[in-house]
Amino acid sequence: MKTVGWAIPGGAVRASVLAIAAVVLTSAAPRPTAPMPGRPDIIVILADDLGYGDVSTYLKGRFQTPNIDRIGREGVVFHQGYVSAPICSPSRAALMTGRHQQRFGFEFNNGPSTRDAHDHLGLDPKEVTIAEVLRTAGYRTGVIGKWHLGSNDEHYPTNRGFDYFWGFLTGQTNFIRPTAPDAVNAFPPRAVTAAAPPTAEPTAPNASGEITQPYATVGKLNAIITGPGRTPVDLGDGYLTEMLADQAIAFIDQSKDKPFFLYLAQNAPHTPLQTTKKYYDRFPKITNRSARVYAGMVSALDDSVGKVLAHLDQTGLAKNTLIVFLSDNGCAAYVADICSTKPLRGGKLTYDEGGVRVPFLMRWPGHVRPGTTYARPVSSRDIFPTLVAAAGAALPADRPHDGFDLATQLASPTPFVRPPMFWRTQPIEAMLDGDWKYIRDLDGNETLYNIRTDPKED
C-alpha cells in the first residue's frame, strides 16, 4: 500500500484538518523564555521569490552564494523553514506580526498597485508589528526595501513602528533604469513601444526559453521614496540591490546611541529580470539570456548580504548582532526553469514544498553554535517571538501569537514538538503535521504526502 502521494476519498481528512486548525488558531504560543544577557542589534534580511535551490547551502553546483551560506555556517541552517503564504503580501504580514495572516483578513495578495491604494488594502492598523514592540523596548527601527503591506498613510512604514523608511511600497519596481549604460535586461527595452507599453505581468517563455517580460512602469505608487514625507529618491543609473545594501549600512552607522532593528527587504530576484554587466559577466557559460540575468540578480543579492556582514565585522558589531535570512516565498513558477526549488516541487503560488519551504538561516554569536543544522519544521512566524525574547521585551498580551522562539527550539534537550502548520488561500488548503503533508487543491482533490520519505511530493 502506498504511504505517500495518494489521493483521499471523501472529505474525512479535510474535516480533521479544520477541526485541528480551530483548536490551534484559538490558542496562543507560549510566552518567550527569559532573554539572554545583553540586547543584540537585529537584522532581518528578506529576499523576494528566492528559490530553495537558488542558495548553495541547499543545492550545490547551481549558484555560489558564499555570503548567504556564511550566515548558516556561522549559525544555523534550517532545512525545513516555512513561510506563512506562497506569495508576497500575506507572507510579509505574518512575518511582521508573528500571526496567521487570516486572523486579520490578509489572505490574498495586495495589488495591483492602483487597487491597493484605492481600496486601502494593507496590514490592519490594529495589528502590532515587531517594529512597534522593539521600538517600545528602546530600539531604533528601520525598513529598507520592499514594503508591500499597504500604500496609504495608515499602512505607511513610519506609521507602523519604523523610525526610518527607504524603499518602495508596492509589489515591484525597476532594479535599474532600463536604458542605463550598465543595465542588462532580460527583456530588450526597444521592444516596449507606445503600442505595447510595459506591464508588470510576466509572459510565457519564448521559443528560446527566455522570459519576455518588460521592465516595470515606475510611477508615483512604486517609485523609491524615503521618510514620513514620502520624499522621492533619484536613483540615477544605480542598481537597486546595491543601493539597498548601502542604505542598510548607513542606517547601521546612524544607530549608535541605541540598539537597532533593521528590516532589509531586498526585492531580488523578483521580476523584472534586470542586472548589470558586472553580475551578468560572472556567468558566461549560461547561454539563456533570461537565466543568465537571473543568475546575476542572485549573485548581486549575495554580494549585498556580504557587504552588510563585512561592515558588521569592520565596526565590531558582528559579535552582538542577530541576523535572520529568508525568502518571502518560493521562486516564481512563471519564470519556468530559470529559478530553482530543487530538490523540491512547485514554487510561488503553490502549497507544494517549493512554494512555502524557503532558504532560512540565522546567526547569533554566543547564542547559536556555529555549524548547527536543524531538520525539524520552523516558521517565519517564529521570528517575531524570537526577536522579542532576544530584546528582553514581551509579546503583546491582548492577542494570540502563532510562533515559537527559535532559540528555545534550538536549545531544547528533546525534539521540539510543533503543533500542525496550516496554510489557506480559499479554496486551497494545506496542513503539515510532523512528517505528513495534506493538500486540498483548487478542484477539491485531496492528497497526503510523507515529506520525510517523499520531499518531492511525487
Q: How far is it from the N-terminal to the C-terminal residue, by CA?
A: 15 Å
Report the average pLDDT across residues. 88
Low-confidence stretches: 1-10, 26-37, 190-206, 208-212
Largest sheet: 10 strands, mixed
- Which strand order does the major sheet show? 8-7-5-4-9-2-11-12-3-13
Task: Please state the CA-atom Rg, rounded to the nearest Å.
Answer: 21 Å
DSSP E strands, number = 17
Strand residue content: 15-25%
| Overall outline | globular
Computed structural class: alpha/beta
Multimeric status of the protein: single chain
Helix count? 11
| SSE sequence, one letter per element | EHEHEHHHEEEEEHEEHHEHEEHHEEEE
The residue fraction in helices comes out at 10-25%
If you had to describe this structure to a student in words, what would you say it looks like?
The protein has helices at 12-24, 66-73, 88-97, 113-118, 130-136, 240-253, 277-280, 289-315, 353-356, 383-390, 406-411; strands spanning 6-7, 41-47, 76-82, 140-146, 164-168, 183-185, 225-226, 231-232, 260-265, 274-276, 321-327, 360-363, 372-379, 421-425, 428-433, 436-440, 446-450. It is of the alpha/beta class and 458 residues long. Strand 14 and strand 15 (428-433) form a beta hairpin. The model is unreliable at 1-10, 26-37, 190-206 and 208-212 (pLDDT under 50). Helix 6 (240-253) runs parallel beside helix 8 (289-315). The chain is globular.
Short description:
The protein is an alpha/beta fold.
